[in-house]
Design goal:
Shape: elongated
Number of helices: 7
Radius of gyration: 27 Å
Binding site for Mg(2+): 43, 148, 233-234
CATH class of the largest domain: Alpha Beta
Distance between the termini: 28 Å
GO cellular component, one term: nucleus
Structural class: alpha+beta
Order of helices and strands: EEHEEEEEEHEHHEHEEEEEEHH
Oligomer: single chain
Catalytic activity: Exonucleolytic cleavage in the 3'- to 5'-direction to yield nucleoside 5'-phosphates
Site (Transition state stabilizer): 148
Site (Important for catalytic activity): 209
């Protein structure tokens, strides 16, 4: 059977805590409905000592960075059952700020990163994370996470301004540029305003959640979207990548022609056709309609 290319869908979402069972079930249902192959999560808030189970038959494999400081931070990378991820190696942050996982999908190496920056001194944390990332990564790098920072204050905030010092913006962008990381959604929508988080106390919409690809891998990007806010107080970001995966082409029905060599089947077909023409040869039905219907 012929195969056709299959894309790889990567989703990034800030969960804002997953210690409530109903919220974990809602999250997994949404990942399934969006057909996400890889999920990059932030703020899982799992306890390091006794983390809850977060998997089902659709997403049986996960890597989690939980902190001993309590139910704060926490990052994770999940893989769907249909994604043949193998030969994996992970690097987990004891503070729960990042989860790095690398391995093969098909014959291609990938490195998936989920990162959660603090709401202050983002540039310091991003610089340390990217330095470790540079040593760890192999193959195609995909980075998703909540930077707690709008990278473009003019477009990524509803007011066009922010109280974050300008030096933090500059140094965070420099850290990203050191690996030539590009904002997938912004690269496809260079002048569009859309947001992933709403702060009720400040009455401010901002885009804090991102997925990045290195410049050399941007040709693999097929689509990027910001989804609606549902079970979390952040919107998911979803990208679609060209991948080495393949899926079977949909089947088209064809007659098994070997059946026509069976004498009993041939005789049954002849009887059916004879009966069809006999029963439908009536004065109110023209020969052309009978013939076309027969075909």
């Amino acid at each position: 059977m012929a195969n056709v290319p299959r894309t790889l869908k990567v989703l990034s979402i800030d969960a804002k805590g997953l210690n409530i069972p109903g919220k974990r079930h809602a999250a997994l249902r949404e990942f399934t409905s969006l057909h996400a192959d890889v999920v990059l999560m932030q703020e899982t808030h799992f306890s390091h000592a006794r983390p809850p189970s977060f998997k089902n038959h659709k997403y049986p494999t996960g890597y989690f960075s939980n902190t001993a400081a309590g139910k704060v931070c926490g990052t994770a990378v999940l893989f769907s059952r249909s994604t043949p991820f193998s030969n994996s190696t992970s690097l987990l942050d004891p503070a729960g700020r990042y989860t790095f996982v690398k391995g093969q999908i098909g014959a291609q190496w990938y490195t998936f990163v989920s990162v959660y920056l603090p709401n202050r001194q983002q540039h310091s944390c991003s610089r340390r994370s990217i330095a470790r990332m540079a040593d760890f990564q192999e193959g195609i790098l995909v980075v998703g996470g909540n930077l707690n920072l709008p990278l473009d204050t003019r477009l990524d905030t509803s007011r066009g301004v922010t109280s974050t010092p300008h030096t933090i913006f500059c140094r965070t962008r420099l850290a990203l540029q050191s690996l030539r990381l590009m904002d997938c959604w912004r690269s496809l929508f260079p002048s569009t305003r859309d947001y992933t988080y709403y702060s009720a106390p400040h009455q401010l919409y901002t885009r804090l959640d991102y997925i990045f690809l290195p410049f050399g891998s941007m040709h693999l990007l097929e689509s990027a979207a910001i989804g609606p806010m549902t079970w979390s107080d952040h919107c998911p970001v979803l990208i679609t990548l060209a991948s080495p995966l393949a899926r079977p082409r949909e089947k088209l029905w064809r007659l098994n022609e070997s059946l026509l060599t069976d004498p009993q089947i041939k005789e049954g077909l002849h009887d059916t056709l004879r009966n069809y023409f006999t029963e439908n040869d009536t004065p109110d039905c023209s020969p052309q309609i009978i013939w076309e219907t027969h075909k």
